[in-house]
Amino acid sequence: MRRTPVLEAPELTGGEVCCPSVLAAPLDPAPAGALAQGFGALADPVRLRLLSMLAAAPAGEVCVCDFVGPLGRSQPTVSHHLKVLAEAGLVRGERRGKWVWYSLQRDRLAELRGALEG
Known about the structure:
The chain is built from five helices and three strands. It is mainly α and about 120 residues long. Strands 1-3-2 form a three-stranded antiparallel sheet.
């Protein structure tokens, strides 16, 4: 006998679930892992500051060199935090010459926000 979940996340065409809510139904392991990686990346004050600086950037992007002074961290430390954010899909880096310019991945942030909405 097949069990039907009490609450289901909305489905897209092709059977893919968009932004599963942690409050709507139990999560399968893969979506839970992806959400945990995203939320884990946010669980650091330096990374939250990086995101807020990117969100406030008038051009929508910031050169990695421009984070070092305001954060009071070394370039390798800033690069490490940006790498964690990039691996979680929260930022994207684009190399231009010897510098990397970062921008927010707003769709991914919206997914995390949506996962907390019931």
